[in-house]
Amino acid sequence: MTSPNHDLLTSQAHVWNHLYSYINSMSLKCAIQLGIPDAIDAHGGPMPLSRLSAALSVPPAKSDALRRLMRLLVHSKFFEKVNVSDSNEDAYVLTGASRLLLRRSTLNMAPLVLVVLDRISVDPWHGMGEWLRDGRASMFETEHGSSFWEYAEGSARLDGLFNEGMASDAGCVAGVLGRDGRRVFEGVGTVVDVGGGIGATARGFAAEFPGSEWVVLDLPRVVEGLEGSEKLRFVGGDMFESIPQADAVFLKWVLHDWSDEDCVKILKNCKEAISTKGGKVILVELVVEDREEDDKATETQLFFDLTMMAVINGKERNEKEWAKLFFTAGFGNYKITPVLGLRSVIEVFP
Ligand SMILES: C[S@@+](CC[C@H](N)C(=O)[O-])C[C@H]1O[C@@H](n2cnc3c(N)ncnc32)[C@H](O)[C@@H]1O
Ligand SMILES: O=c1cc(-c2ccc(O)cc2)oc2c(O)c(O)ccc12
User: Fold this and answer.
1) Pairwise CA distance, residues 313 & 105, whole Å
2) Are 265 and 140 in the same domain?
3) Quick check: 278 pLDDT over 80?
4) Model pTM greater than 0.90?
C-alpha cells in the first residue's frame, strides 16, 4: 500500500510538471531561434559547449546558461550529450528530432514551431476562459478580433512560415505513403488535392506515384501565379461550390478545420467529383481515441484538437464522428489505415 505522503508528493509533482511544461515548448523555440540544430550540424561531429557558445555568439558570462538550456533539451531528446576523449567538456550531437529542425532538411518542422509558438498564437490561450463564455468562434478571434487565416493574409511572415510548415509535412506524408501506403493509390489516375495549398503534397505524390496526375484546388489567392507541370495543374476555386472530376479526391488536414455541417457540404461535393469514375475520397487526418494504449500519442492528438479549437474553431474526430459525417454525406463505406504515426489514411467509398 502506498503511503499518504507518497500520494501527496506524487500529486504535487504532477501539478508542477504541468505547470512548467510550457518550458519545453519555449526551450524548443529558443533552440530554433538561436540556430542550435544548424550550428551542431555545421560542426560535423560532437560539438563542445565552448564551440557552440562561440558559434551562437553567446558571451562567456552566459555560457553556463546555455549549458543548462542544453541539459533540458538533452533530457527532452532533442540532443544527445557525448564524451569526447581528449576533453572533459560536454559535447552535443543531433538526434532524430533535431534533424527535423535543420534548415537544409526538406522535412524541416522549424517554421511550424515558430508559427505555433509565436506570441500571436500563444496570447489567445490566456483568454481560454473568457472565450468559453463569449460569442466568438475561436480563442484567436477573442484575442485578435479576426481568424488566424485573416490575420495571416496581412502578415507575410506568418503566412510564409505556415505554408513552409505545411510543405515540410507534405514531404513527410508523401514519403511515408510512398513506402508503406502504395495500395491506397494503386490504379488511381487523376487526383484532385482539395485545399492542397501551394502544391507541395501533390508534387511529392506525383514523384512517388509516377502514374498519377494531380490537380490542386485551393482558393484563387493561394494558387494565383503558381506554375504547374505536365503532371500537376492548379485550379483556383471554392470546395464549397464545386470540385473538378477525378478518380480520387484527396484532402490532407482540411476537414479538421471545419464544423460538421461544413464537412458534410465538402464531402457531398467530393462525392459528386468522383461520380463518373466510381472512385474514392482519401483523407489524411487524426482519428482520436484510436490508440489509448499510447499515452503520449493520445496526449499529442488532444493537443491538436485544442489547437484546432483555439485557432480556427476546428476539431479532431474519433471514428464514430468520422463515420457519421461519411454516412450523412451519402457515402456507403470507409476504411481507416493507421499508417501515418499519429494520423491515419481514411479511404471513403460511395
Ligand atoms: C490547413 S491547410 C492544409 C493544406 C494542405 N492540404 C496540407 O496539408 O499541406 C487548409 C487549406 O485549405 C484551403 N482552403 C480554405 N478554404 C478553402 C475553400 N473554400 N476552397 C478550397 N480550399 C480552401 C486553404 O487555403 C489551405 O490551403
Ligand atoms: O500544426 C498546426 C498548427 C496550426 C496553427 C497553430 C497556431 C496558430 O496560431 C495557427 C495555426 O494550424 C494547423 C492547421 O490549420 C492544420 O490544418 C494542421 C496543422 C496545424
Assistant:
1) 32
2) yes
3) no
4) yes
